[in-house]
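Following up on my earlier thread - several people asked me to post the actual chain instead of describing it. Fair enough. Here it is, all 1067 residues.
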Amino acid sequence: MAGLLVYKASAGSGKTYRLVAEYIKMLIENPQAYREILAVTFTNKATAEMKSRIIEKLYKLKKSEEPDLLQTLKAETGKDEDSIRSCAEAALSNILHDYSMFSISTIDSFVQRIIQNLLWELGQHGNNELVLDHTPYIEKASDALLDELTKYPELFNHVKRLIEERLDENKSPNIQNDLISLGFMLFHERYKLLSSEERSQMHDKETLNALKDEVNRIISETYKETKTRAAGFLEQIYSSGMHGINQSNYRDFFKKSGGIIPMIVKLSELKRFTPIEFKSIAEDALSDISVWLTKEKINLLKGFVEHQLMPKYYELYSYLNTNYRIYNTALAINENISTLFIINELYLKLREKLNDDGVMLLSDSSALLKEFVSQTDTPFIYEKIGTRYTSYMLDEFQDTSQLQWRNFEPLISDSLGSNGLSMVVGDVKQSIYRWRNSDWRIMAGIEAERQFYPQVKQLTVNYRSARTVVEFNNHFFQKAIEINESENDINPQNPAFNLKKLYSDVKQEVKKIEPEGYVEVAFMPPRTDEANDNFTNHIRNILVDLKSRGYRAGDIAFLVRKNEQGRHLAELLLQLSKSDTQLSGFIKIVSQDALILNSSAAVRLCIAALKIALNPSDSLAVTQFRKEFALLKNQNENIDWPSVFLPDIADTFDWLSSIRFYPLGYMVEAIIQKYFHDQKIDINHHLPYLSLLHEYAIDFSYRGTSSLSRFIEWFEQDGKSKKLAMAETENAINILSIHKSKGLEFPVVIFPFADLQNQRKQQDGIMWFKLPADTPNKILRDYPLLPIKSKESLVQTYFEADYYDEQFCKKIDDINLQYVAFTRAKHELYLLVTDKKLAEDETNKTQENVEKNKFVKLLPNSSSISPQKVVDGKKVVFTYGQKSIKKVDLNDSMGEETKLIKYYPINPMREKIARQLKVDSGEIDQKGDLQHGIAMHAILSKIITLDDLDNAIGWAVQNGYISANQKENIRSNLISMISREPYKQWFSNTWEVKNEASIVNTDGNIYRPDRVLIADNQAVIVDFKFGLPTPKHRKQVEQYKELLLSMGYARVKGYLWYFQLNRHEDV
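Reply from S.P.:
Thanks for posting it. Predicted structure:
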């Protein structure tokens, strides 16, 4: 049996090269092997890159232009150069002529394809339609819940309790967003891992009420008994009469600070719903006299304590030791019992809405597949739907979720059992997407999965970064692990997952000898509002220096943890670009995180106009509209503000009222046309923002929530903070989050908020926890999952293990975020660490205070790598290595000139109405991926033969149907589909083609088949579908056939082409 190949690939270690090499190795052995390999990545972009990389390498191998890969293949396959070239040529030809079998996809795409085919196989394809976005259904469920509050007093009380909690926290009583957040908990992976039986049990009202009653019983009984026993114990002391002790003076005889008596007093005065704190002294008090008495009183009262109090205390201790944890556990459940009831009600409402609409959520697909897999023979399932792979390759394995792994695990077992090759590639140190259900523990534990016979290989050489950067990171993270291990404050449930083992491969070998590389760590006070504060000046000096040494703006990336940091940084850089002559023209910014939709005055004007259309008496909206219009028309200069607010704008009110009932997308487009095109206002800078707003408006309509008031509400709550994705090729400074930077590299990385973080100090909110098997109460223990507010007091409950596990994972998150940020740099790395103490203390104590900073303890300082240190006022800078002059690549400035869009493209209304007819008639699945369906219809309408494909896709990009990033993926998919029969014949040059031509019948009704092919008095109708089959699709094509027969065509054929299912049907 072959073993699972496990590649541990640290940052910059050539992971992609290794993946491609392994894939091509299989092709060299068998040029048809691509039909039996499934390679899985985590993003569509990574999928497209991997496909193009494999094809590129095969082409270069064929041309003998890939010497390094050729040597690797010769060594690992044993074949000579001619054989490898010949096999590469054959494999390349096979793939290009059989592209649809070139299976590289995301996990989600693969699972969705399986589910769609399974539903087809089970005969349920017409019963449920798959829907991509579950958010609208959560919103509908929360609305339905609020609508029914007055009908159900118990539900009303639970919602009332949540509102009261919000008021106690000085929040508004608006609970809508809280309900939606609770609805999203139904889509957390720990919930989705429940079996259907567990889920039924969890949402059974009888079971839920039994849980509530048992929780109340435990709290009530334990509370009363604890107070009674504690008070009884104290009464024995008061009534003893020993040495004059009584209730008023007993504190004078017993130990106060750290003593057992204050703890018992506290228990006797226990307030309802207050946890019992069971400290270590409780056990010490069984035998240690020092926790009872002060040194002065030991001789006086020792006999009384040992012979009378300790035996009685043992009874109290035994009771508390048996009951305090279950009591505290019940309190934690009770604190969130209203949350549990509301989640249960949201679940019922959600299922009701889905059933009413006859839809299935794609977010349920992995859980559904898990149910199928657990109940039958896995290989049979995949064979039955026509999918049979013998080899599997999983990239970014550290980001795999438990649900995804459970679906892939049996496939890999089957592959290995059949001597197929399966491999996973990943790096625990780069797992930073836990909030997206990724689970590094799968990667960390794969070595112990003996049934896979894992063959672990480490990629130890760093090909990305310069020597100083690699050596700095080696030392920094080895030291970080060492210090974290020594703290030993939080340990994982699984002892195998200790920090030292998880980061055992953190040290890398150096590949790049030149340039030497440079790392700078600066400690300074936090940024202030002053124009020339330390923080601003330091960043300014870095940029001026980089510019002087030949670096381009596009070589530089600023990394941030939070979007808010990115926005502040963008403002700072824009301010520098205006005020600093040395940086003028150098600072342009590309930020995928910082440039939010609401930062555009054009967008704010559009939203104000929509508000006026909805309510002309909205004075705030009218003021906003006037202000933004004046700013845009006058380009912020010489505005006569009184004149802006005085003129009557009744005409504006009338016009906005006239478009009030347009579809949302058309309203936004009409506003752009009237206030920007017709007014000849220059909005070049705002075009990307307007495009994004328009896109969201169209999407909102497609989701069935096209009410103008709901759209404005969505924009104010969520939409205004949506981010604009900027082009990656722009020669501009990048500002992006660490999460977005994963997989990228930059010549220079500046991390201006590099302070050590401790997420464990942050509030966790509500999480799904499960009580362990040793919980002594069966009703509580058997409940599948419980929503619990995660906080430190849980260490004294039976949720302790789950709590500590979450805290350990947060520690890993902190270290991993730092690791990903530091390892993006190729040549130079700049870290800025702010310290409040440096702002407060005197200048002469700067160095002393910096030495106390925990970050300093992690800095390298050895014979192999030691810093130069400079103290400058309240700033201390440590530097490693040497700066270098960048060699300027002349091609950097000689590429294609960027073509800027000078106007917002407005499509003819006639064409838009035709597209809407496709949606309204069901030709495009209104509950599926509408945007994709409309885009594909638009592209196909421009294609006569395959030669028209590139022009059609270019037209679609220019007119906003697809983004430039989608272009290559759509092109490759269409090529692969149209290259196969019978589709190839439908796009040949042997036909006269009528795309979306109107046909009017005798009753005056208009029909528009997608594609009609005509030759020799015969016609072929092809109708494109992007959802699941329904009976009305066949009926529609039958109508088309009757129409064409009545027009005199001797023979008419009809076909339905289901793109997502990759199949067609004769009609």
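The CA atoms of residues 712 and 992 lie 47 Å apart. That should answer part of your original question.
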